[in-house]
Amino acid sequence: MTADPRVSAAEQALARQGVPGASVEVEGHEREIAAVRVPESAWARMMGDEGAAIAQAVKAAGFRYVALDLAPADESAAD
Amino acid sequence: MMVPQEKRDRLAAVLRECESVAIGYSGGVDSVFLARVAVDVLGRERVLAVTGKSDSIASWMEDTARQVAGEFGIPWLEVETREMDDPRYAANPNNRCYFCKSELWGRLSSVARERGLRTVLDGSNADDVGDHRPGAVAAAENAVRSPLLEAGLTKAEIRAWSHELGLPTWDQPAAPCLASRLPYGLAVTPERLRQVERAELALRALGFRDFRVRHHGDVARLEVHPGEIGRVPAHRAAIHAAVRDAGFRRVLVDLQGYRRGALNEGLAASQLVQLRGAA
Question: ipTM score of the complex?
């Protein structure tokens, strides 16, 4: 399967917003959600005005929604 | 907030024009308020609040409807609606609400005829104008009137007046049907609605008040009001566990928080059916 180019664009947008080490996966029945995982140290700043601004930057990569994964850091999304 | 006397008088005048009424009564802020004022203006014998019972209505809303009706002396009836049996509804097109409201207003019109009630009412208000409301077409087809909208009452005014009247719903968050949590095109099934309800009950138990659990297949995307989203990190593990228990593989929190009509964000302007203001 070809990699979705939106993923790298979204990860670059997160890095530009000062969130290095974030990863993005595509979710949703229309593949419209960017599911973001960030280092634990970045968690707090994602919830609030700054997170909303970061979401806007990630949406520009082609997603309708940008959402943070609540799973613990040591749990794979595929579990 | 003061509610202008002109609007109070206008609402009473519209209700008197209706003579006797069957009200679509969900247990939400608007319909509870409308039923309470209708009883004041018309008297109990000319009012019937009717709740449509189906899988798409959260059980706590039904409980609120029943409790408030009992406490405030509002004549109340519950009727089962069968929108889920309609494949056009279950397919969840962007005009899904039309099929649901056709069923609801059709049932209420029958009830009104059987009981000699002259007019069927809904709780649409002035702030609903411009929203995507395909259900408004079904309301028009069934000659449903919207006294709150006709009186120009805004949500804030309805909340303030509800507070004056001692209604417990005055500060209740807006609570549309559970099917509104499913993106268009994802089939509405009783199982999916139960998943949403179970997850939302768990968040309520954790103290969250204004949020939605959006159902994206096996993924839950939580929209939490910006005023509450800061509490998510403290409850992260509990939220994750509870929403997973409701049957979701993955639990996500939307970074933009709860916003009204978020699932309409993917619709083109030509797909929107907007509620118009009173003439």
Answer: 0.93
